[in-house]
Amino acid sequence: MRRVHLVHFYSAPGGIEVLSSRLVGSFSGHSFRVFVIRPRAEDQLDVYEGTDIPVTCGSGSNSVALFRLWKYARSYRNDVFHLFNLGPYFLLALKLAGARRIIYSIRGTRYWTNNFQQIVRRLLWRLALSRNMKVIANSEYSRQVFLEKVSRRPEIDVVYNPVGSVRFAPATHERKPGMMKIVYAGRLAPGKNLISWIETAAAIHTTLDNTLFEIYGSGPLEQQLHDKITCLSAGSYIFLKGYRSDIENVFREADLTLFLSEYESFGNVVVESILCGTPVIASGIPSMQEIFRDYPLFLLSTEEDIAEQVIARLRDYEALLSAAGNACRDFRKRFSEEAYIKKLNAIYTSFND
User: Potential cystine with 65: which of 27, 58, 145, 192 (Cβ 3.0-4.6 Å)?
Assistant: First the structure.
């Protein structure tokens, strides 16, 4: 049985972290261990808690975390290492430790914030990447950004995030008329545009007072979001609900998922919502355009007022619901767990001994 080491930056609930912890038992012929760069904070949720998967932690210090990862990889250098969206420093640490079977998953689109970082990190990427590494991306968009910004050297396969499982399915009961529930689910973190989400919710509620809004997730912006809701005197119709492990039930009970993220390499939650039969309205960023390529009704224009666009579509809710039904059938095949497991299994077993 071949051993595979999953390397995450955090073990807090995020799209790929939740999926990885849930799917590891579906891979035949492999056993799994996990290395997490940042140890869990005292009040932080851990997706691997309660599982029988061994977890090793790095450190809050980058230099210490790099050394611990190098030492860990040195001990298991003949195993398979699968890194999820870590920077070139950690990839280089594995390479220097002698790890020979490395899979690097591109799951982001932002690699630097200034010219100095660009120069340094591009050089480190060139040192860290090698021809015998396998590089995969979770969307055509994240693949293209990596090739344009970071390196054109590696051959990159696209392996879409697995979402289409029996867990995500439409509710068996009909939707009840009355209050319309609009939700967000995901990390409460920068880049998710959640202040704008709250402002948009308040603007929608001013016109459509039969609406209420719920935000599900945990993250560093929680207090800031709470303060914003208080500032807008919106506490009677906008609620912070915390993290829910049964997010499928959140989607089934909702009438709409509103997703206004500024950047995403993919976007699990919008697919999960559709698979539960719940329509989505999302910002028209490239990854959302890729997901909803055949369903433009779900995409917002950047040239028009967001709240007005959402209100107009809610007034023709049956059209949204019908489009969600069509997309649900399409997505169940396009983003299936079976396809993901089959493709990743083949990659895990493709390394020559």
Answer: 58
Report which of 82, 183, 93 is spatially closest to residue 138, judged by C-alpha positions. Answer: 82
Residue 323 token pair: 């489009």
Q: What is the pLDDT of residue 164?
A: 61
Query: The tokens of 47 are what?
Result: 């997706």
Q: Which residue has the tokens 């829910």?
A: 244
More confident residue, 116 or 107: 116
Evaluate whether residue 25 is within a structural domain. Answer: yes
Does the pLDDT at position 242 exceed 80?
Answer: yes
Neighbouring C-alpha atoms within 13 Å toward the C-beta of 306: 18
Tell me how many domains the chain contains. Answer: 2
DSSP code of residue 158: E
- Other beta carbons within 10 angstroms of residue 286's beta carbon come to 17
The amino acid occupying position 7 is V
Percentage of residues of the chain with pLDDT beyond 70: 99
Question: Looking at the structure, do residues 191 and 94 belong to the same domain, yes or no?
Answer: no
CATH number for the domain that contains residue 314: 3.40.50.2000
DSSP calls for 194-223: HHHHHHHHHHHHHH-TTEEEEEE--STTHH
Q: Is 338 left (phi over 0), alpha (psi -120 to 50) or beta?
A: alpha
Using DSSP's 3-state secondary structure scheme, residue 317 falls into: helix
Amino acid (one-letter) located at 153 = R
Which distant-in-sequence residues (6+ apart) come within 8 Å of 153 by Cβ? 126, 129, 131
Q: 9 with 34: CB under 8 angstroms?
A: no
**Structural domain for 233, as ranges:** 180-334
Asked if residue 279 and residue 197 are part of one domain, the reply reads: yes
Instruction: Note whether residue 244 is domain-resident.
Output: yes
